[in-house]
Design goal:
This protein has 16 helices and two strands. The protein is an all-alpha fold. A two-stranded antiparallel sheet has the order 1-2. The longest helix is centred in the first third of the chain and has 28 residues. It starts with a helix and ends in a 7-residue tail after the last helix.
């Protein structure tokens, strides 16, 4: 009896999670983990103390604490694990979810073969698989980002483009992404661009009421995501506008005197040349991934869903271009 490829893929993914969790126990503590634990405890104490803003750490102005708070809560229930082990298990789960949603997105846009390749490439990418063992900031953000893209790309091509279910799950993942890193707001732009493209392509068949309803559902998506993010980012509620702006400025121009080895010398991260980022990506990304990305424009001619493929390019290149234009301090 022939086994369906989808069954094989599910089997691989299900076996991957316990394997990743098992491997995580061999990874050490990173320098950020104590700070992240302290931030999580700070936000929990904020709620326990009756919403006293004075109890919040200064860093809560610049980051949400979804993963930090979740980790601290899990530590109380998983007493047989050390605190850092609990955090690493949580990072692994997010790393695994990132692989799952990448496979789902690849299957939706390019077929089951692409789903297998996406899983393989993530497993052989040290920057992803290795960091899934103990990076509880970047990996959860990456997983939630690709999960959000997966749901965004699932918007209907026919009216109604947005359903209550689609709005709910997309708002949830975008909100949690923002509650990890403020850069998650890019996903609002991604969702808006896709909806605009769909509506523009059907502009001759849609009524004004249908367009207005779609806009209202989109606004509901944004408000829902912001509300979810605010649960883990209390300062977003205390001073919404000023804290969002300060958080984006802080992350775009990361302060500090950290130095990186580049071009045979240690250079302050604020003074690294513009080409540091493309060179760093060229050095650290597996050759197979770089080769595949170089050939990927062919998909624009082979795949009829150019709108969603264009959205993927936007999601990859927009943060890259913003970092270059803003001359954001970068480090590896």
């Amino acid at each position: 009896m022939r086994v369906k490829p989808g069954v094989i893929l599910i089997t691989i993914l299900m076996a991957l999670l316990p394997a990743m969790i098992y491997l995580s126990f061999d990874f050490g503590i990173t320098c950020d983990e104590r700070l992240q634990d302290a931030r999580g405890k700070s936000v929990l104490h904020f709620y326990y103390s009756g919403l006293k803003a004075a109890d919040l750490l200064p860093s809560t102005r610049y980051y949400g604490s979804f993963v930090d708070t979740t980790s601290v809560l899990l530590q109380r229930f998983l007493g047989f694990l050390k605190p850092h082990e609990t955090r690493h298990v949580l990072a692994c789960i997010f790393g695994w979810l990132g692989i799952v949603f990448t496979a789902l997105l690849a299957r939706k846009l390019f077929g089951i073969e692409a789903a297998f390749f996406s899983v393989f490439f993530l497993l052989v990418s040290p920057r992803y698989f290795g960091h899934s063992m103990n990076n509880s900031k970047d990996i959860p953000f990456a997983a939630l980002f690709v999960a959000s893209l997966s749901f965004i790309c699932s918007f209907n091509n026919r009216y109604p483009f947005l359903t209550p279910k689609a709005v709910a799950v997309t708002a949830l993942t975008i909100g949690l992404a923002i509650a990890v890193r403020p850069a998650g707001i890019i996903l609002f732009l991604a969702a808006g661009l896709l909806l605009f493209g769909i509506i523009y392509g059907r502009r001759n068949t849609l009524t004004k009421t249908q367009v207005l309803n779609t806009v209202l559902w989109y606004v509901a998506l944004i408000l829902g995501a912001v509300a979810i993010a605010a649960l883990f980012w209390p300062t977003l509620v205390i001073k919404p506008l000023s804290n969002v702006v300060s958080a984006l400025q802080f992350n775009a121009q990361f302060p500090g005197q950290r130095k990186e080895l580049f071009n045979r010398s240690f250079t302050n991260i604020a003074k690294l040349p513009w080409y540091y980022l493309p060179v760093w990506l060229g050095i650290t990304a597996p050759p197979a991934v770089l080769f595949s990305f170089a050939l990927s424009p062919i998909l624009l001619f082979l795949n009829t869903d150019r709108l969603r493929i264009g959205l993927l390019y936007f999601s990859i290149l927009f943060p890259f271009v913003v970092a270059l234009i803003a001359r954001s301090p970068l480090y590896d």
